Amino acid sequence: MRAEIIAVGTELLLGQVVNTNATFLSEKLADMGIEVYFHTVVGDNPQRLEELLQLADTRSELIILCGGLGPTDDDLTKNVLADHVGVPLVQNTEGLEALNAFFAQRQSTMTPNNLRQIETLQDGIPLPNRTGLAIGCLYKGEKNNYILLPGPPSELKPMFLEQARPLLEKEFPTTEKLTSRVLRFFGIGESKLVTDLAEMIEQQSNPTIAPYAKPNEVTLRITAKTEDELSANALLDQTEAEIMAKVGEFFYGYGEENSLVEVVVDLLKENNLSITAAESLTAGEFQATLGTISGVSEVFPGGFVTYSKETKVSFLGIDSALLDRVGVVSEECAKEMAEAALRLAGTDYALSFTGVAGPDELEGKPKGTVYIGLAQKEGETLITENHFTRDRSYVRHSSVMKGLDMLRRAILNKN
Amino acid sequence: MRAEIIAVGTELLLGQVVNTNATFLSEKLADMGIEVYFHTVVGDNPQRLEELLQLADTRSELIILCGGLGPTDDDLTKNVLADHVGVPLVQNTEGLEALNAFFAQRQSTMTPNNLRQIETLQDGIPLPNRTGLAIGCLYKGEKNNYILLPGPPSELKPMFLEQARPLLEKEFPTTEKLTSRVLRFFGIGESKLVTDLAEMIEQQSNPTIAPYAKPNEVTLRITAKTEDELSANALLDQTEAEIMAKVGEFFYGYGEENSLVEVVVDLLKENNLSITAAESLTAGEFQATLGTISGVSEVFPGGFVTYSKETKVSFLGIDSALLDRVGVVSEECAKEMAEAALRLAGTDYALSFTGVAGPDELEGKPKGTVYIGLAQKEGETLITENHFTRDRSYVRHSSVMKGLDMLRRAILNKN
User: What is the ipTM metric for this complex?
Assistant: First the structure.
């Protein structure tokens, strides 16, 4: 099936917003074996959008429209598509209930323009919005098919993954099925991974091997094209084993929506272990990352943000004279912070982060110098010295990811 | 002048690369008063690119092509455009010198395909590449004008800013200039803001008013079209005053790259004030947000993450019996947390966050119920009860933003 993606929004043409939706959808559609031939961005202009739809009809069987489903007058995507295919807009009952509940909960009055968000094409399949109010739609036309998705990525992504993708797979089944498996790696860069697997990647045909670099991790998607799932899994198992023989030491988990923090929290839960932290340069980002996981309270009681030297002394009871002697950007400081946090929180593990986020250097150490400590109730305190690159935000993120990986390896080594 | 941007590259259609070039160019062109009506992405396919050029000729006077100027066989943008306008490609002398110097410096042999990079359209104006090898081009056709730019942003940006933009300004001088101002609002939703400003937005012509919703904030871009900057600012001042009369209570700052946390950290620094926090449901996200700002150590010594009831008692010294009586999702708990943090950190302000991030309810309170406390060295502790919507991540982000706004208002009220 040939597809194209149309993003609607003047803010995109003014350069205020990057069209990451097209990138996200393209990646997911490629995985489904749907070929995307064009991305287009058009402003909030009904005539130009209609002209574009006429053109898209001549070249694509699946036309995905993103943005312009909101409550304001310049949100016109739905109206233009309804006119284009010649059906009226109707209110979606579930959407209306969600809208009323939203305003009731906020104890505020709904203005009438909000009702625009829950209108959808008559005879279309409505796509509920779990993270927002605007309803999406899959409309099967005589010749072509259209999907309407909201513009904010926080709404578009779950709506595509949870609503649109399963519908597409059901409505347009293919005889040859693509079965994918995602392997996730931490601690190896994309170019190193690709070099280590060069021979496999060059000779790939079925399964295909596609590496993706993400901040501080690399994923490999291996995809088999077969007629049944059983033979797909056999093919994937074999390729995975070959990959693992080469770069298995960096593998941490499976799955598209997985993450290092989820793997670590699961490991803590399974082993009935707990974690705390004392954070300097990361300023709470490690703990906030734990907090993204629902139910983390089982394994994480809380911890400390000791950004200044003074709070390292007053919150954690570290000897001020020691810090004056060795500096806060030091192995010793990381050790003291982790051990004090472990003692105060009474957990099985405690991570500490101290270093130079940048942009300026600190205590004569260049930006990116980070000491991470892992104190253990049973076992010695482990310290790593790291030299992270790029900007302040990347140094902090790299620190959090490295801390998670140290904890993951410590739990695995224990077992 | 009407413009459109065409990005060429199959990697964009596979979702491996985000089309940030279109965003960058759009922003710069908007500043020059050049209106961008379309972005398109097309793969490395000569036929589809030629069809797109034919379409672009019918609707744009300036057509900017990005990508596909490199040395490999799938770099075909230059060849397709040369055929399209009917001129041959010629080698660029300066480009050839730079290419030879590059290979001499690396002491490696140049393969013949590298010569493709320094070819340019006969009769076109070559655009030197300061940060790479591929030569760009401005080609003035009979009816339309074309610019060829390289795909890597590190080459495209300097080539556009240093070569293409001055040429465009010289070749196509405009009398009218666009001047923009961005106003930022917190605490008002996009639909409410648009309703409050409905009359102004309907009657807008010059300046134009464009609202844009971001997570937990709304921005308004007002843009004046004038012949000089002085009259532009007068127009913008008048429109801003009208906007402020209606929704000024929600305004927090100016600028496209600004944020609530930057405004708050600046206010703390200017007034020589300091902040700490005790975070339950946000689990460190407030403090990590402060940590994104370079130099925040002047005003933020550190704080506490008290995720469990036990750490609220052991880290902060809150009475366990009190928490059993009133619950942790309570005004009283927020008050105790903020006041304890203030006392322990010795700062001027302390924020506390306690509530239900979700997905499940807690202590009989629905998800999204959040109490935020602001203890002050001088003045009473302020508490807000909030009912945030959407998912766990949005509830936590809403809490952080609301806490920042409470702090901002407290500092402003003090002065």
Answer: 0.80
